[in-house]
Design a protein that fits this description.
single chain, globular
């Protein structure tokens, strides 16, 4: 079983890969959603915020940037903020 810190590092790596064009939204989502040890170690609101951001990011992938109400860049920035705050909580 992975530790919360290892799971957070995996989310951060998937987020960085997505930002630099080598990753996929589905990969980030899969890693984040499977991070039970991490989500259990954080306050409950972290799970809610993360899942909401992932849902919006996945939805944004279905549309072109112009036709989607969610900016992928803004969502990635919000996910980075989530990672930073989660790291401070651990």
């Amino acid at each position: 079983m992975s530790t919360p810190a290892i799971q957070l590092d995996a989310i951060a790596a998937a987020l960085n890969a997505l930002r630099d064009g080598t990753g996929r939204i589905a990969a980030l989502s899969d890693v984040a959603r499977a991070s039970e040890a991490l989500l259990s170690a954080l306050p409950a609101r972290y799970r809610e915020v993360l899942l909401n951001l992932l849902d919006r990011l996945e939805s944004s992938a279905l549309f072109s940037e112009e036709s989607c109400s969610f900016s992928q860049k803004d969502l990635l920035d919000s996910l980075q903020m989530w990672v930073d705050k989660a790291r401070a909580q651990l």
